[in-house]
Amino acid sequence: MESNGKFEPVTTDVTTHWEDIFCERCSAMSSSIIREILKFTQMPDVISFAGGLPAPELFPVREFEEACVHVLRTAGQQALQYSPTEGFMPLKEALAERMQKYHVPCEPQNILLTNGSQQALDLIGRIFIGKGDTIITGKPTYLGALQAFKVYEPRIIGIPVDNEGMQVEALEDVLKKEKPKFIYVLPNFHNPKGVTLTFQRRVNLVKTAATYGIPIIEDDPYGELRFEGEDITPIITLHKENVLYLSTFSKILAPGIRLGWVVAPQKIIKKLVQAKQATDLHTSTFIQMITHDIVKRGILKAHAKEIRKVYGERRHIMTDSMEEHFPKEVKWTKPEGGLFMWVEMPQEVDAWDLLDEATKEKVAFVPGSVFFPDETGRNTMRLNFSNARPDLIREGIKRLGRVLTRKLTS
């Protein structure tokens, strides 16, 4: 109502009960436990191995500033305008050329640029998953994928992941009984286990999936972060018509730009584009053009080389510190790249109880059960080695070692 030229809020005796208005699908939504843990790690005296965070001191801030100025001065009107949903063509051309290094078979028209690969996961769920449909993931697997897919209310079957990646031999028995919409796999430096799917398992995965007519979603955010060993053929190279390939600039450039991409057959790209149009019309024109400028000037290649060196050193420091401070009953993976290490403790140790004790020592990690579709794996945890400086890695592992020792001797 208006009174003396001012508007006053409307008051009634009726209260809107928003929880009664939410759709049924909202019940499948949940907050990321990692995001909740990260709130705690914002405290200045906490050493965090919890988030999958790149090292911020390595971000190419000056190069981004230069790219911003250049793009605005030379193509400002275009950069600040709407653009095609499919993405900025020069950047797609550069990506297609760049991926030839790994023999990924694609043309620019097979690429869709997205707001991080997380949006790509949501779009894939949107076009493929109906309520009650079956999908297959690793056990464990990327928490963000579980969050994206669960919104569409599928039934998730987990295939165990060991030190050679997903146990592809276990797929056959599942596919004889089930008709899943797709198989989701992280072949390189798996999140959370840090392991890499062997070449033979990749071949077997492609053959098995093709035999039963099941597509593969290949999520590869860490492939360029290899610090030892040889690159292994991407799954999409083995069967491009049956594989959707995802990657991102988040781990090799900066996560704040929220820029990822999908490589897929043209008929899939068309449907993903339609889903994206309903979501956000297109990814930021400005961000795409800035990123293209950085790629074009060779900055991305040089930056990736630098972070591989630093992350390799930090991985080495973490493993050495664990050898020194962790009880002998505790085992862990030794990744050849990526950001993560996986720790397995004796069955009687519950990582959630351990986290309570660890927070008192001002050190944080992610309990492994959140990465399992069935929430098993309570004796496991994920550690991130990319974000903390060497001195903090040593001190954090020392603190965590104290907690583990007390837990196993109490």
Describe the structure.
The chain is α/β, with parallel strands linked by helices. The chain has 2 domains: 30-59 and 302-409, Aspartate Aminotransferase, domain 1 (Alpha-Beta Complex), CATH 3.90.1150.10; 61-297, Aspartate Aminotransferase, domain 2, CATH 3.40.640. Helix content is 41%, strand content 14%. The chain has helices at 33-41, 61-79, 89-98, 116-128, 143-150, 171-177, 199-212, 235-238, 266-280, 285-296, 299-325, 351-360, 390-409; strands at 2-3, 6-7, 47-48, 111-114, 134-139, 155-162, 165-166, 183-185, 216-219, 243-248, 260-263, 331-332, 340-344, 363-364, 366-367, 380-384. The strands form 5 sheets. A 5-stranded mixed beta sheet has the order 4-11-10-9-8, with helices on both faces. It has a 4-stranded antiparallel beta sheet with strand order 12-13-16-15. The protein has a 3-stranded mixed beta sheet with strand order 5-6-7, with no helix packed on it. Helix 2 packs across helix 10 and helix 4 (116-128) packs across helix 9. The longest helix has 27 residues, at 299-325. It is globular, with a radius of gyration of 23 Å. The model has no long low-confidence stretch (mean pLDDT 93).
